[in-house]
Write a structure and sequence with these properties.
The chain has helices at 14-25, 37-50, 64-77, 101-130, 159-179, 197-202, 204-209, 213-224, 245-257, and strands spanning 5-9, 29-33, 53-57, 83-86, 137-141, 185-191, 235-238. The chain is an alpha/beta fold.
């Protein structure tokens, strides 16, 4: 699909920025919601340099009023949205045994707002514009933690992040059923280590061994390119941590091959 209209959260760096750039390379239009104003400017420039258009909003995608205002502005600029990517997330220490009461409640709420509440707010606001697309798609960016052999509940501090991601998994399933009659497909990508600033802050070693952000952009387009008759309600698992990148790329390519 060329001339794609994308709304993405967390597009200032990493995976989100790579997806935005890939849409620009297809001559598309990007609307990015991210608190990182500096990163937003970089994303805007990358998309334009690639051949597309980009408008970034320095806002919290988990703030319902901010999201409503942003989508009102998007509605004034375009007559439809083709793709919504719920990408933003925060990995912080939301454990019970560190910090104090206020710090840990704040950390847990921040993780849920970014990884789950933002997805709900943005999807709720996006549906009327998605309905006007010839081939609308919602893609939720999830994690390998959804796989039963990769549950990471034993990692201290991951509580808020994991709760948000498990909630996103259920939203994927329920939205796919709810939006099927509107011909809006809803799928999720569940993957392991990717070389992003967020992972590097936790483990540079894992970042070095992981996939590249552009690999995730490729996976997104494999789903988009399935078209209106493509899958919905699917969780695509690939690139688990420790998997060599070339093997992860083969797994990503398999998403494309499924629809042939």
């Amino acid at each position: 699909m060329s001339n794609l209209v994308l709304v993405i959260t967390g597009g200032a760096v990493g995976i989100g920025q790579a997806i935005a750039k890939a849409v620009g390379e297809r001559g598309g239009q990007v609307f990015n919601i991210d608190l990182d104003a500096t990163g937003n400017r970089e994303t805007d420039a990358l998309v334009v340099e690639a051949g597309g258009q980009c408008t970034s909003f320095a806002a919290n995608a988990g703030d319902p009023e901010a999201v409503r205002q942003i989508f009102d502005e998007i509605d004034r600029k375009v007559d439809h949205i083709d793709l919504l990517v719920n990408n933003c997330a925060v990995w912080n220490d939301s454990s019970l045994t560190t910090g104090d009461y206020h710090s840990q409640v704040t950390a847990f709420k921040t993780a849920l707002d970014s990884g789950l509440h933002a997805a709900f707010c943005c999807t709720l606001a996006a549906v009327p514009l998605l309905e006007k697309s010839a081939s609308p798609v919602i893609i939720n960016m999830n994690t390998e933690h959804m796989d039963k052999d990769h549950y990471l509940s034993y990692i201290v501090g991951s509580t808020g992040y994991d709760c948000a991601k498990f909630g996103l998994w259920r939203l994927t399933q329920t939205w796919a059923a709810e939006l099927k009659d509107k011909s809006i497909r809803v799928n999720e990508l569940c993957f392991g280590a990717v070389d992003t600033p967020m992972l590097r802050a936790v483990s540079a070693e894992k970042a070095d061994a992981g996939m590249k952000a552009k690999d995730l952009a490729t996976a997104v387009f494999h789903i988009v390119d399935q078209g209106p008759q493509g899958e919905t309600g699917r969780s695509y698992f690939f690139g688990f941590s420790g998997t060599p990148r070339n093997q992860s790329l083969e797994q990503i390519a398999a998403i494309q091959m499924e629809m042939r």
